[in-house]
Amino acid sequence: MAKKMTTSAGNIIGDNQNSLSAGQRGPLLMQDYQLIEKLAHQNRERIPERVVHAKASGAFGVLKITKDISKYTNAKVLQKGEVTPMLIRISTVAGEKGAADAERDVRGFAIKFYTKEGNWDLVGNNTPVFFIKDPLKFPDFIHTQKRHPRTNMRSTTAMWDFWSNSPESLHQVTILMSDRGIPKNLRHINGYGSHTYSLLNDKKERFWVKFHFKTAQGIKTITNEEAEKLIGQDRECFQKDLYEAIEKGDFPKWNFQIQIMSEEDTKTAKINPFDVTKIWPHSDYPMIDVGVMELNKNPQNYFCEIEQAAFSPSNVVPGISWSPDKMLQARVFSYADAHRYRLGTHYEMLPVNKPKSQVNTYHMDGSMNFSEPSSSDAYYEPNSFGGAVEDNSYIEPPLEINGDAYRYGNITKVDQDHYSQVSALFLLMNASQKEQLFSNIAAAMDGVCDKIINKQLALFEKVHKDYASGVKKALGNKL
After folding, report:
1. Is this prediction's pTM over 0.85?
2. pLDDT tens-digit series, residues 419-432
3. What CA–CA distance (Å, rounded) separates 78 from 194?
4. Most buried among 147, 184, 186, 192, by the most CB within 10 A?
5. Domain 33-131+166-399+409-418 top-level CATH class
6. Does residue 125 have an active-site annotation?
């Protein structure tokens, strides 16, 4: 029986002969990870430089599935009773490796599940939305979070200038500047897949899905003043808290839940379900319990098991896949590409990244190649020498695509509505939370020029007049 060809993450390949295109004669789709992987890997079959990674904490654990969701997916990892080993890495986004843990920032929430069908990586944040929805803007956004090329210091002007010119950022900015912008520790935050993904069942039916991990410890946050004091005492306070909790057997848990939308529902949805700056209203798409994630083991070597851990949304297993979410489509390529540059061409051969399932791939040479010396006539594909082959039964059902190839912006009323969900969030806040929001924004605007502040206030005004007036009052004589 022929071996099944897989990606380097152990995911079985359904078709290795034909690229994924929009129509028979249409342009190629960026979500064709195998195409991008093969081309990018070929370009890196010589040793490149390695770059450093961001500040993070991490631990190992298990995912236990307690509910039956087989009507939505046939993924073995999501079947009732399944227990899957996993690794989580929680990081600050903007700060460098030496940054303090208790800074106001979004937290990356990356999970690697070592499933029986290859690695499934879920790479999200502790927020359900993001600052932008088109990947073309991502490098510019990251520039604003890093150091100014002349001063070599972080620039609040660049940050607010970008946000004030990008109204789609309002939802994420409001969450970041709220009381949830600085968690008390990593055990008291939620995790989200953020993007829309897809699930496939035995009938080859597709469902769109949002992944949620709700902390069983409850949400706990701290203020700017508390964070400043904490940073002065211990810059690694979150790392210490997570490590010590696990060491003493106080294993943190998260309740795993999903939201489901059928393909038919996308035609009548009040929002664009593939817009990562929007949430799916729970009233329309209720939460469904799936299982529990528990962290119960600290890494034995931080560098080997956390710093060298490489997560990418390109790693999916049968029954779980991607969606037309533009940000997700770009991340499918960019994350794996970052690891090739940072760690080396064969980064998924590192012990912490290596799948527990069998890997059969045709990648050649390059850095970090740990395979045992061997030779075979089957070092390309297709071949006539018994090498691994594709399995057509794993091909996903076709996804209907409509529209012309074009650089689409905010052309519909739904796309232009950057405000209604932010308004709903603002109105959910109590008086104390609103005051914290106003104060945090005012503090973060220190040194920003009036022109940019006024532009941002105009966006807050579109959310709610009290939002704008509250920030204006908090700014006081700064404005």
Report:
1. yes
2. 999 999 999 999 99
3. 18
4. 186
5. mainly beta
6. yes
